[in-house]
Design a protein that fits this description.
seven-stranded mixed beta sheet; single chain; globular; eight-stranded mixed beta sheet; alpha/beta
């Protein structure tokens, strides 16, 4: 087997996260082996419990390093733990990828260590820019843990804040040994009574972060509170005990802001994960999954040894040389740290949701060369000589009212629905349009409700429209159809506007009115993400980029299933009567050749005419549908019966009646059950 190691916190305070990461890796291993392994060799992952303890991590790293069959290691959750183990991996020249380490020293100290996370200096700097330019803070109070994680983030944040002119009211540390008492925050808030902080930044671990937020709210601080990626866990939301208003969390990934390909793959991954482990996969679990897939991709491209894997990982060094994982396009910087866009989320209904404004560093050369026009248009800001996209998030939703026409033959459908947007700032939402719309004289749109008086703006439309979709009728008449409505902004790409599913406000009530009345409503699927478009529209700002132009897409699918009962009466009943009649041939003596052939030929012609008459109402497609398979099987059956009759008659003419009778019997006991099996198989595969 191909052997990888995994060092995770499988016991102790962080065991739940460790088990989630182990589950993701086990799922990846099973999927890989089901697909034939790696070059025909099975994948094996050996799990060790490091308990998030640096000493144990060093011991585990040495154990993996001394095992020559272990080609790479995934794991070590915290930066301090990964840093302790990295020197051991360097000693044994063993590639190691941490899913979550964010301290720059982890990858800078060893050429054999990588991280799937961004680095603390990038995160700290981004948080400072976000506070000043998005949350409009002028004076900030910082509370941090007195360890490598807290002090590392503090250093990068403070340096950036000073360069930006963002005021620091104070920085206050607490240690793991002393912790902080109930009066800690109250004392901190009174240190500088002359300056009231506009916002508070907390650099701490998950549980401590929840306690600090609660103390801040108890101390009557109602301003924005911002925390790092250690807060991007369900445990943090639970620890808030309801004090989640105006709390922002910086994190490396949210499914809502990923690509459509990522969303579709993740949906399948999540379904299998939930089925096996009965819990939601975490972000760090997804990072472990991607880390293992990147190692496997390196193995498939090179020989199976440690140096080749390391070199294979180093080859992922830019957008044009990236790995397409379930968490996006993945590539490392020169030190082995993952390049990721930082996502800022807020908490709504006990879930992390993308904040209405995101910051993304501008890296495309063609945009940098035309940066002034972007700044003038308000699409880019320049903070400390670094340009950032001001990416606006628009929450989008659809509720369906009625389907007026399911036009399978015309490859379209006519539907009426309610559509709404929620956003902040100046956004021309009227230019968010339908990519698969067919505009006709009967289409119409009207504003139903609108509220632009508050910080969060809202508009709702009632729309009637016709939309194009390529119906897949291979299983007709057992088919289920997905009717998509796809939206995107006409001119602004994903760096400017991101459409995000407003899942909280969607209605999942059954759609009662569907015309023509041959369909049942099954449900709906909604997702948002980015999709690369092949056209640059001749716009100079899009040409010459390092990667495809990606636009944010929102898509909803109405799922309908064809009602089968009418087809049982109008299609299958007469069809099977004709098939059974053709089998009556065996009841006619083989000496009566004319009668036998006439019966089968009449059945064949009847089936053929019936087939042609039915196809007039079927969609014109370039492939066979399930109904065609029934008829094709019937043609083969009747041809076999005609051929058998001719051979039997030939035997009778030559006075070989006994052999003709045996032929009749043999064909009868073969053809009848075979026909039953074939028709049953077609039905089963069409239904399931």
């Amino acid at each position: 087997p191909i052997v990888l190691g995994a060092s995770l916190p499988l016991s102790g305070d962080n065991a739940a996260e460790g088990r989630a990461m182990r589950g993701a890796l086990e799922l990846m291993m099973e999927t890989t082996n089901e697909d034939g392994g790696i070059g025909g060799r099975p994948l094996e992952i050996r799990f060790k419990d490091d308990q998030n303890n640096p000493d144990i991590a060093r011991s585990v790293a040495a154990e993996f390093g001394k095992s020559p069959e272990v080609l790479a290691v995934i794991g070590h959750q915290f930066s301090g733990v990964a840093l302790a183990a990295s020197e051991v991996y360097a000693q044994y020249q063993l590639p190691h990828i941490s899913p979550s380490a964010s301290n720059p020293k982890v990858t800078q100290s060893s050429p054999w260590s990588f991280s799937m996370n961004y680095q603390d200096d990038i995160q700290g700097e981004n948080m400072a820019v976000y506070l000043q330019y998005v949350l409009n803070a002028k004076n900030v109070l910082v509370i941090h843990s007195d360890d490598a994680y807290g002090t590392g983030l503090l250093e990068s944040f403070s340096n950036k804040a000073r360069r930006l002119g963002l005021g620091l009211v104070g920085t206050h540390a607490y240690s793991e040994e002393s912790k902080f008492g109930p009066d800690f925050v109250a004392n901190v808030l009174q240190v500088n009574p002359d300056v009231t902080p506009d916002a508070v930044v907390i650099f701490a671990h998950t549980v401590d972060g929840g306690k600090l937020v609660r103390q801040l709210r108890a101390g009557d601080f109602d301003g924005p509170i911002m925390g790092p990626d250690s807060f991007a866990k369900e445990e943090f939301i639970t620890g808030l005990m309801g004090d989640s208003d105006n709390v922002y969390v910086s994190s490396p990934f949210l499914y809502e802001l990923s690509s459509l390909m990522t969303k579709q793959f993740a949906a399948h991954y999540r379904e299998k994960y939930l089925e096996k482990y009965q819990v939601e996969p975490t972000v760090w679990g997804a990072f472990c999954y991607d880390a293992a897939r990147m190692i496997i991709a390196s193995l498939e491209a090179t020989t199976a040894d440690r140096t080749a894997i390391r070199n294979g990982l180093l080859a992922y060094d830019g957008p044009s040389a990236s790995y397409s994982g379930i968490t996006g396009k993945l590539y490392f910087d020169e030190n082995g740290a993952m390049r990721r866009s930082i996502v800022v989320s807020y908490i709504d209904d006990s879930h992390f949701k993308p904040a209405f404004t995101q910051l993304r560093r501008v890296t495309e050369a063609h945009v940098l060369n035309n940066i002034r026009s972007r700044v003038d248009d308000g699409e880019v800001i320049i903070a400390d000589k670094t340009p950032y996209y001001l990416t606006r998030v628009v929450y989008t939703g659809l509720d369906f009212y009625r389907i007026n026409s399911v036009g399978v033959a015309g490859q379209n459908f006519d539907v009426e629905f309610f559509m709404w947007f929620r956003w902040k700032g100046e956004i021309d939402v009227q230019n968010i349009d339908f990519l698969n719309g067919i505009y006709g004289i009967e289409d119409k749109s009207e504003v139903l409700r609108e509220d632009r008086s508050g910080e969060i703006q809202y508009i709702c439309y009632k729309i009637k429209g016709t939309y194009l979709t390529p119906y897949d009728v291979r299983l007709f008449p057992f088919d289920t159809q997905h009717l998509p409505i796809t939206m995107s902004h006409k001119s602004k790409d994903a760096n400017q506007i991101m459409l995000v599913l407003d899942e909280k406000n969607l209605s999942h009530a059954a759609l009662e009115e569907i015309y023509p009345e041959e369909w049942d409503y099954v449900g709906r699927e909604d997702y948002s993400g980015t999709r690369a478009l092949s056209s640059t529209f001749g716009d100079p700002s899009y040409t010459g980029g390092d990667s495809d132009v990606e636009f944010s897409i929102y898509q909803t699918n109405i799922i309908i299933k064809r009602i089968l009962f009418p087809y049982l009466v109008t299609l299958f009943l007469p069809f099977f009567i004709m098939v059974v009649v053709s089998l009556f041939m065996f009841l006619i003596p083989n000496s009566q050749f004319d009668a036998r052939v006439s019966l089968v030929m009449t059945s064949l012609l009847s089936i053929l005419v019936f087939h042609l008459s039915q196809e007039e109402a079927w969609p014109n497609v370039g492939y066979l549908v399930s109904a065609d398979e029934y008829f094709m099987s019937a043609y083969i059956l009747t041809f076999t019966l005609i051929l058998e009759s001719i051979i039997a008659n030939w035997l009778v003419i030559r006075n070989r009646q006994a052999l003709a009778n045996k032929l009749d019997f043999g064909v009868a006991v073969t053809v009848v059950p075979t026909a039953f099996i074939v028709f049953s198989y077609i039905t089963y595969t069409s239904l399931y």
